Amino acid sequence: MDNSMQVRVMTAFPKKGMSEEEVLDELEKRLNEDLTFDSGKILGSMCTYPHPLAQKIISLYIDRNLGDPGLHVGSRKIEEETVQMLGDLLHLNKAYGNIVSGGTEANILAVRAFRNIADVENPELILPESAHFSFLKASEMLKVKLVWAELNEDYSVNVRDVESKITDNTIGIVGIAGTTGLGVVDDIPALSDLAQDYGLPLHVDAAFGGFVIPFAKALGYDLPDFDFKLKGVQSITIDPHKMGMAPIPAGGIIFRKKKFIDAISVPAPYLAGGKVFQATITGTRPGANALAVWALLKHLGFEGYKKIVKEAMELSRWFAEQIKTLDGAYLIREPMLNVVSFGTKELEKVEKELKRKGWGISAHRGYIRIVMMPHVKKEHLEEFLRDLREVLRDL
Predict the structure, then answer these.
(1) What is the pTM of this model?
(2) Which of 136, 144, 190, 339 holds its CA 20 to 30 A away from the CA of 32?
């Protein structure tokens, strides 16, 4: 049987069902190609293996749909409590928002709110060159022009360049608290001042940093303020499915004022709750994921998350020092959060050889990024360093 015929057979709608055991056996075989978090080989992801309590919550409440709060009243109340707890973590007394599918949806919702409130004919959003690709999606979907601001030598956004690009069409400014590539935290206080001076809303993409910076600051790490403590900040993206250890997907969008939620809410009149308004992009939403976030916040608390972040930050500093000792590798910059990125000569060849050895890494940005997530242990990094030394030696 040729390959095309085999594919057609495998993807045809089954005429007869398989037994549960047969289905599970086939899945097990097919998924052998996947890397798993518990293998210790995934070093380039900002997601991690969900906390055991979160797994229990998913199995218990998998049927809950936050898209129909009239049916799942308790689930909706718990989502509201979760949003308030995240708001409190981010220094906001009264928070508005939702647990959503991830940072991409959260960023799109923020841009949509800014656009709808600004109501200008040719809307523009100013954001750093280091911003996440989700803003490209937001631009295309919402017809908002992206105006890219330059980066400083330390890879933080150049605030003066941001200011130079403000026009009458500007609907808002974006700052990053934990860039995807390097874990850099922009000068959010300066961006906040700028936003206030020009009467513009500031959105902070803290999808990664939101569950790192509050705890790292409590541990004594010198990091800039990034949250609602700063008056110019009007919205924040924070992802519990990253360092929050919640099941995938579980993102968060938090707004300072109700007007932002109102600006993106649409009626969903046929639902059991009666006159329901939805602000999220998705209609049907997995309630179990939001319940899992609530459970983890209650179970781990600030001290529990501080312990997780302490281990990750210490490991990142140790790993950065190890990279400095290698011949043929160099740090891109000193780590701010628990992200360490390094470059090498013949980077593509190094990436290829490391992947051949089974490591889940990427060099698409011009460097290799290692993220010290809770599933990454020192022994995994020691093994990685052994393989990296070998690859560098053979160049």
Answers:
(1) 0.95
(2) 339
